[in-house]
Amino acid sequence: VEFPAVLLNTSTGEIESEFHTYVQPQEHPILSEFCTELTGITQNQVDEGVPLNICLSQFLKWIQKIQKEKKIIFSSDIPSHSTSEARPCTFVTWTDWDLGVCLQYECKRKQLRKPDILNSWIDLKATYRAFYNRKPKGLNGALQDLGMAFAGREHSGLDDSRNTARLAWRLICDGCVLKVTKSLDK
Asked: Which residue range or ranges hold the Exonuclease domain (predicted)?
């Protein structure tokens, strides 16, 4: 019901751009009380949202705009667009769930083409576990372990994205080299 993303500059730690939209549920248009309480998303917000195919199209437009403006490339682009000033970019998620399960099956079910750039990412939870040798209790727990407070509302997609970026930056500052942990075969 929500599709957020933030662009983190891994040289400065600054969030340079954000994408956010609510996705209109098609099969079950009425949100459950559980969903509303967990995420803070209202029925009105999803009613005014867009279907997933439109959301993915808007997301790709956002990606293409920042690719041009900031000269970023994704690993799937490297053979065709490789230039010296291009800056590598990849997706970072907290677990494989969002891109590896949720979006993957939703696109399959709705017979939508999932953008290829969403087929590989860094699972920050797995990276965190390996780097700090600690098992975090969720994103909030990982931040707390490092003396950082969760900013915003937990389970709000945009706030989760911003906090995932903050955590990724902390890992980088602590010397972690972020590497893709998951790639789906085409």
From this structure: 1-177
Helix, strand, or coil (residue 25): coil
Are the C-beta atoms of 2 and 157 separated by less than 8 Å?
yes
Tell me how far apart the alpha carbons of residues 22 and 16 are, in angstroms, rounded to a whole number: 21
pLDDT of residue 85: 79
Residue in the structure block whose two tokens are 């969720």: 138
Distant-in-sequence, close-in-space partners of 74: CB < 8 Å, separation ≥ 6: 88, 89, 90, 117
Token look-up 């970026």 returns 165
Domain locations in the chain as residue ranges:
2-183
Half-sphere exposure of 91 (CA within 13 A, CB side): 21
Kindly report, residue by residue over 95-130, the tens digit of the pLDDT: 999 999 999 999 999 999 999 999 999 999 999 999
Which tokens is 36 given? 């509303």
Name 112's Cβ contacts closer than 8 Å, sequence gap at least 6.
52, 53, 56, 106
Nearest CA among 144, 134, 139 for reference residue 176 = 134
What is the Cα–Cα distance from 177 to 136, expressed in whole angstroms?
A: 19
Pairing of strands 2-8, 91-93: unpaired
